[in-house]
């Protein structure tokens, strides 16, 4: 017996896993806010002649329900192994001063909550990604491998409008304690991806 | 521009800054009464000059820097005046410090060159050349980078964020350093036109505000360059038609014993 059909398809369902803001900045978060922690573990890099390899930076943000409304509240952590010069160069990149992906986000920022140095410990282990930042942040996300995928390849999202990359891996939080710069929330959904920025 | 919106939401701060600028203009005008000797005017004693210089910088720059200070205040989410004024004082500190090399240069120049800077000998040509250099500097990449930081301060502020009052002073000082990179040639032009002249102070302060605040960046750069070029050429060929310019008289060959 053989057969074939083809056409177009769509569906809708009642679940919540991924952040609506990840699909589109103007979609409106699940709750009345979108609170997020972005962790950048820099393997290698150079900013205006300063080596920034081995440094880690985290951005904690509290945005309104619709992200494009702006007025984001934002704080930054730089790992305490960074020199003054490295902090200077990294905050310049992540504040959008030197162009690149963050320059597009800067106009949405309405309040700076601070820049802090803290011990940051990142553990990347296959599908699992975890970070501990002082006493403020401790979370782990796990890339989602679909049931039945024998290669172990996690789900990828493509065509995403995201400062990190346009293709990212879907993940969910397996552990979360986040309280920094007066922003507190429980991490639920997540993303992971290698990144490579230049400007 | 984000900075304009911030200024509208911080009217109290804007009023205080403009009030400080107004008082500085008044005080500068009082100190400089009768001092205008035209191009390369004698600077007086170091203590007097540096005091006047700092106040003069507040007078000339505060109006231009108000939107940046207001944006800082908004990002800091404060209604208080402490941190924004600490930012402004860091900014003023850097411009104030510029007065030291300026004074030293004027003294050393006076000793080494002696009468060469007198109007009749070389002063007029050096003044003209200074204005032409300032016009050319408008078009350089360095000027472009510095002006970018001043015109769209949001990226600068987020990228250089430091907490606390000390951080505010440091951020202000850093912003001031970019501003010096942007405006040093315009300040040199002021010396070429007559640093003790309220008219030329107002013209240069106006040009700085024009460059920083008007929406069209091309107009800012080319407009300023054109005016400096015109002043430079007039200074060389027909200084007596430059309105408001005090031509040093023969008996005012300063720098002479």
Description:
Helices cover 10% and strands 41% of the residues of chain A. Chain A is mainly β. Chain A has one domain (20-192). In chain A, strands 7, 8, 9, 10, 11, 12 and 13 form a seven-stranded antiparallel β-sheet that branches. In chain A, strands 1-4-5-6 form a four-stranded mixed β-sheet, covered by helices on one side. Chain A has a two-stranded antiparallel ribbon with strand order 2-3. In chain A, a hairpin with a 2-residue loop joins strand 7 and strand 8. Chain A is globular, with a radius of gyration of 18 Å. The relative contact order of chain A is 0.16. The mean pLDDT of chain A is 91. With 257 residues, chain B is an all-alpha fold. Chain B has helices spanning 2-8, 11-32, 46-75, 82-113, 119-137, 141-151, 153-159, 164-193, 198-213, 217-237. Chain B starts with a helix and ends in a 20-residue tail after the last helix. In chain B, 76% of the residues lie in helices and 0% in strands. Chain B has one domain. Classes of the chains: A mainly beta (199), B mainly alpha (257). The A-B interface holds A 73-74, 76, 88, 91-98, 103, 106-107, 109-112, 114-116 and B 2, 74-77, 154-163.
């Amino acid at each position: 017996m053989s057969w074939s059909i083809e056409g177009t398809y769509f569906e809708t369902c009642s679940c919540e896993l991924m952040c609506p803001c990840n699909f589109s900045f103007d979609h409106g978060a699940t709750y009345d806010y979108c609170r997020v922690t972005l962790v950048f573990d820099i393997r290698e890099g150079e900013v205006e002649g300063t080596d920034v390899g081995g440094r880690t930076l985290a951005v904690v943000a509290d945005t309104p329900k619709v992200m494009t409304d702006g007025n984001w509240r934002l704080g930054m952590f730089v790992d305490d192994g960074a020199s003054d010069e490295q902090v200077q160069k990294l905050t310049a990149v992540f504040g959008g001063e030197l162009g690149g992906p963050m320059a597009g986000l800067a106009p949405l920022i309405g309040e700076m909550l601070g820049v802090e140095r803290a011990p940051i410990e990142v553990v990347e282990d296959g599908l699992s990604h975890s970070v501990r930042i002082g006493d403020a942040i401790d979370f782990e996300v796990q890339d989602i491998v679909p049931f039945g995928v024998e290669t172990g390849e996690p789900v990828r999202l493509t065509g995403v409008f995201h400062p990190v990359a346009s293709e990212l891996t879907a993940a969910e939080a397996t552990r979360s304690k986040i309280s920094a710069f007066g922003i507190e929330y429980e991490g639920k959904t997540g993303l992971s991806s290698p990144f490579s920025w230049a400007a | 521009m984000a900075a304009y919106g911030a200024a509208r939401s911080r009217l109290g701060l804007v009023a205080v800054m403009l009030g400080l600028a107004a008082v500085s203009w008044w005080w500068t005008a009082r100190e400089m009464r009768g001092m205008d000797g035209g191009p390369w005017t004698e600077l007086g004693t170091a203590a007097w000059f540096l005091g006047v210089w700092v106040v003069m910088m507040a007078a000339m720059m505060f109006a231009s820097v108000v939107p940046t200070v207001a944006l800082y205040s908004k990002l800091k989410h404060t209604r208080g005046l402490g941190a924004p004024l600490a930012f402004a004082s860091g900014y003023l500190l850097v411009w104030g410090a510029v007065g030291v090399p300026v004074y030293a240069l004027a003294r050393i120049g006076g000793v080494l060159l002696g009468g060469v800077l007198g109007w009749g000998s070389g002063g007029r040509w050096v003044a003209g050349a200074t204005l032409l250099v300032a016009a050319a500097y408008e078009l350089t990449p360095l000027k472009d980078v510095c002006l970018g930081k001043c015109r769209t301060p949001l990226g600068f502020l987020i990228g250089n964020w430091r907490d606390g009052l000390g951080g505010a002073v440091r951020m202000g000082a850093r912003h001031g350093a970019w501003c010096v990179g942007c405006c040093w040639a315009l300040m040199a032009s002021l010396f070429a036109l007559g640093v003790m002249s309220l008219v030329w102070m107002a013209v240069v302060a106006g040009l700085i505000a024009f460059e920083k605040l008007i929406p069209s960046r091309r107009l800012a750069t080319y407009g300023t360059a054109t005016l400096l070029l015109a002043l430079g050429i007039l200074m060389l060929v027909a200084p007596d038609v430059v309105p408001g310019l005090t031509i040093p008289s023969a008996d005012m060959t300063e720098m002479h014993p």
